[in-house]
Structure formats: structure tokens, C-alpha cells
């Protein structure tokens, strides 16, 4: 039986990303050809062309992407389309929760907490929707701490604070969202005689995490099924952050325990691909952040090898990477595994 698969493009006709050009995209014609060679019937559509009157999506696989546009406005639109497809019984790859966690550190940490997966619980996060909530509950007993905006990449906006005063200042700055509606309500309250209760001017969500000290670098690991691409990221001089530093290298030897940790995380989340940021201190592994779609492809496109677990352990495999083939192989293997699991 032919498997039906849809690939959804954004308004720029792009799908996922590529470092080959600015705002680059995977080659969707090549994706379609490769999927057809594996027995899929493939349709490529824009998000805006999804027809919710049609029953063609029911039971079909849907590959889609996310967006990191300012204020996440287009991502919000994509969310509407994906929920509509779920109503129409489409099979989203990855599932909707994984999409929700993209560019959304609050929900990413909710996924971590809700997973009950012991291996990744050594990062402890508090989640806030307003500065007011944080100010009312923060005692200053757990310092230093790291404060991160609800969205962002490359370490943007991330602050390390060592005092209560710094924590309140940083969180207040991150959460700022001034609204003129308060002024309107103030005057309306005076004129009506009903009084006035302001909304917060600090309503951008953020997270507060425990600080992992004494780190000089971390690892970004991209996993596509059985291919593990490892990128070492050095910290900026005098900075605690490795993300966005630009100090990058491809280590030809990495600890087996690092790859084993990455493999366990990948297996637990049950996805075709994943990007994880991992730090190591005193032989303890920390999953700093994780993404399930629309993550950067630098580690794949610029690496000349990957790691794979064989019968005798981990081995380094040389290759000239073909991102489209790697992507299709991972999705195809994932779909086959899910079908086998349902049939067992």
C-alpha cells in the first residue's frame, strides 16, 4: 500500500533550513524524488493552501516546519494549521508537542519535567508568565541562577545572575511588554467611577534555571536516526555561554558516554531527528536544550563524518553529507518503526 505524505512549505516556499545560502532551504524537489523512490505518494503544499474541506489528510503523514520570525507571528499561524490537521486526523511528524517546544523554552522545560525521564532531570527550571509572578515568589536562596527569555537562540538574552538584585533587574528587563491599554483603562476607570486594575507591563514569559558552573564548552549533537553529528562549541572568553560563540570544531574523538547519553535521549523522545545541547561536568551529563524540528544544519552540512553505533561499539564514518538523503532516510526509518510498533 502506497504511503501518503505531505510536505508543507512556508510563504517563502522554503522547508527546513540550509547554510548553503542566506535563509536557505532544503531542496524540496529532491526530497520528493527520494520519498517517491521509497514508495511514498508525495504532495508539496504551502501552509496557506491546506484544504480543511478535504479528507485527503486523514491517515497521511505530514512533514512541516516551524518559524523564528519576530514575535513568532508566523509560528502562531503554523500552529493553527497544525491543529486543524490534527482535527482532520493527519499524522504530524514530529507530533504537535514537539512543534510547540520549538523556540519556546517554557514548553521545552514543561516537556522535560513531564517526561519523568531521570537522565535529564538535573536541569531544574521555574517558568514564569510575568515578572510580577517571579518577584512575588523569588526568595534569592538559590543563587547563582540563569534567566532565559521564553524564546531566542544563540544565547541571546540569557543572563547569569548572582544576587537577588541582579535577578530582579534581569527578569524585569526580559519580561518587559509595555502596554498603552493601562493608560486607557486608568482614564476610563476615573470617568466611570468603577476604578482601575492594571495589567502587567512585564508579560513576556521566561525561565529560571540552576547554573552549571566550570564549563569551558558544550556539544551540539544532531541525530538523524543512526547518524550522530557532533559539534564542539567553546565558550566566549569570560562568558558562561557556548551557544552563539562561533568557536566551533568537529572532534574526531568524543567520549562513548557522551554518545550513549545522546542515544538514550534520542530513543526516549521517539522522533526521526533531534538537536541537543549537552554539557559535561565531573562525568555528569546535562541536557541544556533540545529541539525536534527546524534546527540549524551547520553540523550536518559542514561535517565530513558522523558517529554510528555498531555491533562493536561507536565508530566514525566518513561521508560527503547529502542533507536531503539524510533527512529522508531518518523519516522513512521512523515511519517504519512506528508501523512495526503498532503491528506488534
Question: Would you give an account of this structure?
Answer:
The chain has 344 residues and is an alpha+beta fold. The chain has three domains: 3-93, Rossmann fold, CATH 3.40.50; 125-210, 2-Layer Sandwich (Dna Ligase, domain 1), CATH 3.30.1490; 213-326, D-amino Acid Aminotransferase, Chain A, domain 1. 32% of the residues lie in helices and 24% in strands. It has ten helices and 15 strands. A five-stranded antiparallel β-sheet has the order 11-10-9-12-13. Strands 2-1-3-4 form a four-stranded parallel β-sheet, sandwiched between helices. The protein has a four-stranded antiparallel β-sheet with strand order 5-8-6-7, sandwiched between helices. Helix 1 crosses helix 10. The two termini are 19 Å apart.
Q: Main traits of this protein?
A:
four-stranded parallel beta sheet, five-stranded antiparallel beta sheet, alpha+beta, 10 helices, D-amino Acid Aminotransferase, Chain A, domain 1, globular, Dna Ligase, domain 1, Rossmann fold, 32% helix, 344 residues
Strand and helix layout:
Blueprint: E1 3-9, H1 28-37, E2 40-46, E3 61-63, H2 73-87, E4 91-93, H3 96-100, H4 105-115, E5 125-128, H5 131-137, E6 145-149, E7 159-161, H6 164-175, H7 181-192, E8 206-210, E9 217-224, E10 227-234, E11 248-249, H8 256-269, E12 273-281, E13 284-291, H9 298-301, E14 305-310, E15 313-318, H10 323-343
Parallel strand pairs: 1-2, 1-3, 3-4
Antiparallel strand pairs: 5-8, 6-7, 6-8, 9-10, 9-12, 10-11, 12-13, 14-15
Helix pairs in contact: 1-10
Amino acid at each position: 500500500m502506497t504511503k501518503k505524505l505531505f510536505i508543507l512549505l512556508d510563504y517563502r516556499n522554503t522547508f527546513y533550513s540550509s547554510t548553503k545560502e542566506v535563509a536557505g532551504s532544503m531542496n524540496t524537489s529532491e526530497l520528493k524524488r527520494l520519498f517517491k523512490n521509497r514508495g511514498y505518494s508525495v504532495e508539496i503544499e504551502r501552509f496557506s493552501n491546506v484544504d480543511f474541506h478535504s479528507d485527503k489528510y486523514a491517515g497521511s503523514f505530514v512533514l512541516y516546519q516551524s518559524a523564528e520570525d519576530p514575535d513568532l507571528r508566523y509560528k502562531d499561524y503554523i500552529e493553527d494549521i497544525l491543529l486543524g490537521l490534527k482535527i482532520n486526523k493527519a499524522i504530524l511528524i514530529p507530533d504537535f508537542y514537539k512543534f510547540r517546544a520549538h523556540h519556546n523554552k517554557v514548553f521545552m522545560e514543561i516537556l522535560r519535567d513531564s517526561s519523568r525521564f531521570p537522565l535529564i532531570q538535573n536541569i531544574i527550571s521555574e517558568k514564569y508568565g510575568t515578572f510580577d509572578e517571579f518577584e512575588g515568589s523569588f526568595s534569592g536562596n538559590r543563587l547563582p541562577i540563569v534567566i532565559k527569555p521564553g524564546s531566542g537562540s544563540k544565547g541571546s538574552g540569557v543572563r547569569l545572575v548572582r544576587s537577588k538584585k541582579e535577578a530582579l533587574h534581569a527578569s524585569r528587563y526580559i519580561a518587559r511588554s509595555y502596554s498603552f491599554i493601562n493608560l486607557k483603562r486608568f482614564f476610563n476607570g476615573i470617568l466611570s467611577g468603577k476604578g482601575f486594575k492594571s495589567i502587567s507591563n512585564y508579560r513576556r514569559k521566561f525561565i529560571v534555571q540552576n547554573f552549571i558552573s566550570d564549563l569551558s564548552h558544550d556539544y551540539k549533537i544532531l541525530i538523524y536516526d543512526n547518524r550522530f553529528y557532533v559539534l564542539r562549541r567553546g565558550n566566549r572568553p569570560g562568558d558562561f555561554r557556548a551557544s552563539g560563540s562561533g568557536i566551533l570544531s568537529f572532534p574526531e574523538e568524543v567520549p562513548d558516554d557522551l554518545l550513549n547519553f545522546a542515544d538514550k535521549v534520542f530513543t526516549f523522545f521517539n522522533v526521526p531527528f533531534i538537536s541537543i545541547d549537552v554539557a559535561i561536568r565531573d562525568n555528569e551529563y546535562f541536557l541544556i536544550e533540545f529541539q525536534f524540528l527546524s534546527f540549524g544544519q551547520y553540523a550536518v552540512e559542514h561535517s565530513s563524518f558522523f558517529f554510528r553505533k555498531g555491533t562493536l561499539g561507536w565508530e566514525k564514518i566518513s561521508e560527503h553529507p547529502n542533507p536531503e538523503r539524510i533527512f529522508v532516510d531518518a523519516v522513512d526509518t521512523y515511519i517504519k518503526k512506528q508501523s512495526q510498533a503498532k503491528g506488534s
